[in-house]
Design a protein that fits this description.
Layout (H helix, E strand, L loop, with lengths): L7 H4 L2 E2 L5 E2 L19 H12 L14 E5 L8 H11 L3 E4 L26 H10 L4 E3 L10 H10 L5 E4 L8 H13 L3 E4 L12 H7 L5 E4 L1 H5 L21 H8 L3 E4 L2 H9 L2 H10 L4 E2 L15 H12 L3 H16 L2
Parallel strand pairs: 3-4, 4-5, 6-7, 7-8, 8-9, 9-10
Antiparallel strand pairs: 1-2
Helix pairs in contact: 2-12, 5-6, 10-12, 12-13
């Protein structure tokens, strides 16, 4: 079995300067178990947080309750379909939403091709549709396209008519309030579907601080925020250049305010950034989960092939939610009920 590769969030291109890219940071820890340095591998990161994230059995399938995973991909870092199906089953996931990539292009918004396949070899619309329709009891699919491609609306619209239940993962180098993105918002409004956005400072969906204007302009469109910049901004003292911040959180950051002030903004709890947000300040996390108990949706965005153990970030996110949710009702909201209601599943 091949060794799992880094998740797409960790593989995302991070600008080293105005014109170049450097690898996104790998994870490590200082003596504080949730502090992150650049000198440690993702596998070491996951191993270290496992002891903090998990109280009780590691494998999510020990719990019989259903789980909806709103953030997964096909061919993720080369993972096979068989490995993917086994991974979701081992995590205890009962319904999965597939997020495809857009077309392969060598343009500025794909960082000259570096972000093709959502920067992780992820397959496209046709593959997601075929996979989900062959397994309708366990999978649904979104539709996607490069934001500023001339045929983006036409391509996405065609797959929405064929059963896609949302747009995304939008992960391209455009401003989050650009005319092209607003065009996709109009399409989402026409079809009454949500948009899932990857926010990463200076790389994808730029200027998260301006996203309130989009939320105000499209009050009927539901937006799901995801990734490093979105989760860094739980902190009112956030430095947007720090993608995996550590230490105590000052409540009232942009993400906190968007969730509080805009009924159409929701949070995707997936990837290393979501897990880091859960674990960096557990007192803050408990209050945050209480405040936004109806607006947080579980996603894994995990490219592991086993669905268990220290290499599976998705399992550890499930365990952290179970441990830190202030009540069983809030835990079930985040892992299942919120997504069931949100998508009408």
């Amino acid at each position: 079995m091949p060794t799992p590769r880094d998740p797409k969030e960790a593989r995302s291109p991070k600008p080293a300067n105005a014109s170049g890219f450097a690898p996104a940071p790998s994870f490590a820890f200082t003596p504080s178990p949730f502090a992150i340095r650049n000198s440690c591998s993702r596998r070491e990161f996951l191993g270290l947080i496992a002891s903090a994230a998990i109280a009780g059995p590691l494998v999510a399938e020990d719990a019989p309750e259903p789980i909806i995973d709103i953030h997964q991909h096909l061919n993720y870092s080369g993972r096979t379909d068989e490995q993917f199906i086994a991974h979701q089953k081992a995590m205890g996931v009962t319904m999965t939403i597939l997020l495809p990539a857009g077309r392969v292009l060598d343009v500025a918004s794909t960082h000259s091709g570096k972000s093709n396949g959502l920067a992780a070899q992820i397959s496209g619309n046709a593959e997601a549709e075929a996979f989900a329709k062959a397994r309708p009891q366990s999978f649904r699919f979104f539709a996607n396209e490069v934001t500023d491609h001339a045929e983006a609306r036409t391509t996405i619209g065609a797959f929405l008519k064929r059963g896609a239940i949302g747009i995304g993962e939008q992960k391209f180098g455009v401003d989050c309030d650009s005319a092209e993105f607003r065009g996709l918002c109009e399409l989402a409004e026409e079809h009454s579907v949500p948009i899932l956005c990857h926010f990463q400072h200076a790389t994808y969906n730029h200027h998260f601080e301006r996203f309130d204007k989009v939320l105000e302009k499209f009050p009927k469109v539901r937006f799901i925020g995801h990734a490093q910049t979105m989760w860094a901004h739980i902190d009112a003292k956030c430095d947007p250049k720090v993608l995996y911040p550590t230490g105590k959180v000052t409540p009232g950051g942009l993400t906190d305010r968007y969730l509080r002030d805009y009924p159409n903004f929701f949070a995707d709890m997936s990837a290393g950034s979501g897990l880091n947000a859960l674990l960096r300040d557990e007192d803050h996390t408990r209050a945050f989960l209480e405040r936004h108990r109806d607006k947080i949706l579980f996603g894994s965005d995990c490219n592991d092939v086993l669905g268990r153990g220290p290499g599976c970030q998705g399992t550890q996110t499930i365990a952290a939610i179970r441990r830190l949710a202030p009540s069983k009702a809030i835990e079930r909201n985040i892992l299942f009920a919120n997504s069931k209601k949100f998508f009408g599943l």
